[in-house]
Protein 1
Amino acid sequence: MADFYQNGMVTTLHNLSQREPESLEADLLEFSKVRPLGLILPSLFSELEGKALPDIINKIKGVEYLSEIVIGLDRADEGQYRHALKFFGQLSQHHRVLWNDGPRLQALDAKLQKLGLAPKELGKGRNVWYCMGYILASGKAESVALHDCDILTYDRQLLARLLYPVANPMFNYEFSKGFYARVADGKINGRVSRLLVTPLIKALKKTVGHCDYLDYMDSFLYPLAGEFSFRRDVLNDLRIPSDWGLEIGVLSEMHRNYSSNRLCQVDIASTYDHKHQDLSLDNENGGLSKMSIDISKALIRKLATQGETFTTEKFRTLKATYYRIALDYVETYRNDAIMNGLSLDIHNEEKAVEMFAQNILTAGHTFLEQPMETPFIPSWNRVVSAMPNVLAELKEAVELDNEEFSAEKGTYANAG
């Protein structure tokens, strides 16, 4: 059983009673009559052939409270898109698959590129951004959840608990962030959150001083969780990064746009495991190495927008401060693991800390050398202002793809 501690900055909704999923879903079904509910699934085609996504689809295909499911499909050719339509055709809910590599969506992306409004790099951020645009275009859901497609420990309660805070008409939350313990197979996971984000935020507090933003970020129990939910109106003015800074960027945007009493975090799973990234010690352009650089830059950029001045000397101090704090955390996690009968490889933990420390310095140097770098994808409000018909064009492209490439007209089109 979790505790009931509140840190005072962002409301934490705990799992205090192990409420039955059927009870949660009954509530959500009632809420959906007033506030239609949706789900975004950003997916690589390769995930359709893995273990996690088939299990996820099997578990959500009968969820009655969902009005719409939007799947963003990356790295798929025409044959793979056709296969995806069949694969997701088992969903009973209204659903659409965005073929991001298809000619229609590529043509729309080219129009946005000419206006300087398209995502600048491939990846999850771009995928999520187009899915959010489709949610705005379709108008079928008022509150929407988003979660990854590689969750190996998925159950329906995760989705129900994730959506509940923004679905309940009695609550005033605009955004909810999922959290959980990253423990699976007898090990403590979540190295980037444990060994980079938390100690880096503590180190920033020491080097740049306490500020509302750092206190806010420090209040999230798992800031890198890929699971969150939101009211549809949030999407209009949300700028998200297209790189690995997506989760930090979304939290930063919510801090910019909303009072903290409109935000919450919710315990969505007792165990959670998904695909693990390589540490990539010798490649700063891949795996956890690139992730750590992008996340560090996201935090640095946010503080710069609030008037903080950074120099080479300050980044050196930040690196040293982070390193000492992170090593102390390694001992803390070791003790926690031992008491709970879990394993923790101290050597690998400290190797990760050493790499993250160097990458904080790399991120700092990149920030100083490229002060005009703007990794954020423009908000949909800005895009609509420049191209008023963009949402209609996006919806039409998705509908035409769905109609043309469904194997049997009417069988997988799932019109509604």
Protein 2
Amino acid sequence: MITIFEKIQELEEIPSYSKHEQFVQGFINAIDERIISKGEALPSINVLIKELGFARETVMKGYRELISRGIVESKKRLGYFVANDDTEQTLKVALLMYLIDSFQEQFYRNFRNELGPNVHIDVFFHHGNITMFETMLDMIKGKYGVYVISPIPHPKTKHLLDSLPNNKLIMFDRYEALKGEFNYVTQEFEQSTYQVLAELADTIKKFDEMIFFHVPGSLDPVEIIRAFKKFTKDFAVNTRIINEYEPGSVEKGKVYFTLNNSEIWKILKDCEAKQLQVGKDIGILSHNDEVVKELIGGGITTYSADFSLMGKKVAQAVLKKEKIQEIIPTVLIRRNSL
């Protein structure tokens, strides 16, 4: 019976193949010819060195490439295993997101399209739960060539992400500082929020009060709360922070600032019931733009990073294997509501 060692050694007859290429292609040929199959344990690094006579770095580099393609996986304390018998794919990516809302969907759609059909993506969701985040990381570690992760602002996050190889990690959406150099394509919340509020200050002051909806302990970026409080002080604007919008409580002369789409829909419904005109009787400011906000209420004023661009940028970094450290600009889009 032909062994994996023999499949690798067969390729020595091809002069153009380096030892690394022999190793990788030998494994691929062995899988294609059903010599080894999905789930099967593979020889250890020491065994391969002994049987093939290859240098340790050559064997380790070969396994790293097979892992990056999603063909082989490394299990802690157990060794290497065949993870996938689809040897045509060039890369396997783990995408760990908050959840699927309209903004994350924009990111995913453009990320997926930019990567193309030969890259396999497994999508996971942590829902902003640190226990789930930790469980997901433990589950995917060592099984993918690239880890694209939207981190949770939590004291444990840095330690958890530091356990991944920096050169295989791309952070997106929110930023968390880690050890050493790492890749990221994120948005910025504090300075951009302050600048937006400052730009809108004259319009906001035409109203009696600005109300910001924020639930303490929620996933709302704390940087936005800090920026709102600084704006309140610097511009002497009459403001309040309350937990959530109570249906039926809309009042003339108020500006409502929310990060939650469902609150916008409730406010608009109540405006219609009370015959209040959006942009004149009340104002609305929303974070994160989407198509529906162009249409409802005569257009909702928003400020947002471009999640479509973020998805494309991350995908390009995955494909080109180039260093990227970029903050996607935040843009104010003024519409009828403010």
